[in-house]
Specification:
Length: 255
């Protein structure tokens, strides 16, 4: 039987915590390496950072002989196109995604939504409530944590436990964990997260200097980091615990 297309969002109210980075890294591994069919809706208007990244990635491939060859090899071996990155406004995204899925001949396994951090319209809340899974990066910053936990707690109480939505789970994960940092803050917040009855992923993602830069900014580098056209380099993804993250992600969504 055909599996249901899952709607997934990496979302929090805070910017700069890794929403877009984790969206592209996850989408690229699933689509280019693991055989899933993925689509990405970029509704973080007006930045549209993933749409712009796709433009830069495409330009990089056109301008570099090495990436052109890599792209040729990859796309002939997987025998499918790059995943679509579709720009939209937050209010129209669900409708747009439904029309898109109805009209496409492809069976999509996952649709990722990069939603805006600000909840300034009913449309954004409505879009969030239509996700099947929400993954929320958190970083060791008191202000970010307090507001994220408060928001996720409300979301969990109203939308998930209230039962009126299709949300199957909200999962927090630590991102940009600095190995040198004292672990007390993490332990403290792990406890609060538990008390709030929110789910926390086992995988901690370290602060990986090497994926600060995306593919188009490091054409001379042998390792591909963040890209919408290629999966992250295997060694890098191991080092950055992305492999672990993807395994846990797939266990959660059971796809
Ligand atoms: N685990 C990580 N280690 C190092 N840099 C990271 C990590 N996660 C995200 N970043 C970087 O942090 C910056 C902000 O991430 P981004 O995904 O654009 O945030 P958001 O979409 O939440 O605003 C980007 O340069 C990104 O590459
Ligand atoms: Mg972003």
């Amino acid at each position: 039987m055909k599996k249901e297309t899952l709607f997934i969002a990496f979302t929090t109210q805070k910017g700069g915590v890794g929403k877009s980075a984790m969206t592209t890294i996850t989408a690229s591994i699933l689509h280019y390496r693991m055989g899933y069919n993925v689509a990405v809706f970029d509704c973080d208007y007006p930045q549209w950072s993933i749409v712009k990244m796709r433009d830069r990635d495409t330009k990089t491939v056109i301008e570099s002989e090495r990436f052109k060859l890599l792209a040729y090899e990859q796309f002939t071996s997987i025998n499918k196109k790059a995943y679509p990155v579709i720009s939209c406004k937050p209010d129209e995204v669900i409708q747009k995604a439904e029309v898109f899925l109805k009209e496409t001949p492809i069976d999509f396994d996952f649709v990722f939504f990069d939603l805006p951090g600000t909840i300034n319209s009913a449309g954004v809340i409505n879009s969030i409530s239509r996700m099947h899974y929400i993954f929320s990066p958190i970083i060791a910053d008191r202000l970010v944590l307090e507001s994220t936990l408060a928001f996720m707690n409300v979301l969990n109480g109203v939308l998930v436990k209230g039962g009126d939505t299709g949300i199957k789970g909200i999962h927090l994960f630590w991102n940009m964990v600095d190995g040198r940092e004292k672990s007390e803050l993490y332990a403290h917040y792990d406890h609060i997260i538990k008390e709030l009855d929110l789910s926390l992923m086992k995988t901690y993602l370290p602060d990986s200097k090497r994926f600060r830069k995306e593919m188009s900014a490091q054409m001379e580098n042998r390792q591909i980091s963040r890209s919408t056209l290629f999966p992250i380099d295997r060694r890098l993804s191991k080092f950055a615990r992305i492999e672990e993250f993807i395994t846990e992600f797939l266990q959660i969504v059971q796809h």
